[in-house]
Request: fold
Amino acid sequence: MSRIAYVNGRYVPHAEAAVHIEDRGYQFADGVYEVCEVTRGYIIDMSRHLDRLDRSLGELAIAWPMSRNALKLVLREVLRRNRVRDGMVYLQVTRGVAKRDHPFPGPATRPSMVVTASRIDPAASRRNADTGIRVITVPDNRWERVDIKTVGLLPNVLARQQAKDAGAQEAWFVDASGVVLEGSATNAWIVTKDGKLVTRQADTGILRGITRTTLFDVAKKLNVTVEERDFTVEEAQSAREAFVTSATKTVMPVVAIDDRPVGNGHPGSVAQALREAFFDVAEKTSA
Ligand code: PDD
Reply:
């Protein structure tokens, strides 16, 4: 079955789906995006993802390309046409097509919107969670507004490649004082010796992950305390457990940081319990 993408009002074969060469997303990374997890035919935390999209669009003064309800229909339709029941749905909105010039174009320029869906094998994801992943740390060289979910992801791409080259699956951005900010496409967490969850406060220095937000609710249900504060690479390396969260990784145990094992070097029980409880708590919208 061939894949189908949504591009500016049309459902087109994936191989033929294209945007204009003067799309501001292509030329300036002048756009925002969202990724929603899809599990067993449900879109996970769609309301929170659309709320963050609203915020990202607002921060960049890009108009919604269509109403929120129409957008939900498009997400579902792309999933349906691609028969994706486990995987992700990706949506990108840019400021649209305009003659290349740095300032925003006039109001006649309509935002562009692209939606794609892809499968993630749930069994492979479970196997990863059973073994845990390795992360490396990299200096944070991203721009200062990473709280906006923009498509300007070049530093993230380079960091992830560096992780791959080092035999790791994720890279954690670290600021000049050794504080862990977040991963290239995940939020970073540790579990302290006394069983508390720690993740960095969500100001403008990290992306406020939807999975991160929902995990606060999961922790509450499991009676686990969460602290939002700075933690260093050293604290993470000597923590009881570490893990990452995102719409594509859910809760993924980390077993090594810069080649130093975390805990006993195996996925920890707290991360596993959070992973198991996640879908009981997260919002589930039929895809
Ligand atoms: N990335 N931090 C960054 C830099 C991210 O790109 C992401 C998600 C997260 C976690 O956010 P959420 O829980 O809302 O997925 C944190 C998506 C999955 C991606 O780019 O593929």
Observations:
- Residues 35, 156, 182, 185-187, 207, 209-212, 245-248 surround N-(5'-phosphopyridoxyl)-D-alanine (CB under 6 Å).
- The CA atoms of residues 150 and 222 lie 33 Å apart.
- The chain is about 30% helix and 30% strand.
- The two ends are 19 Å apart (CA to CA).
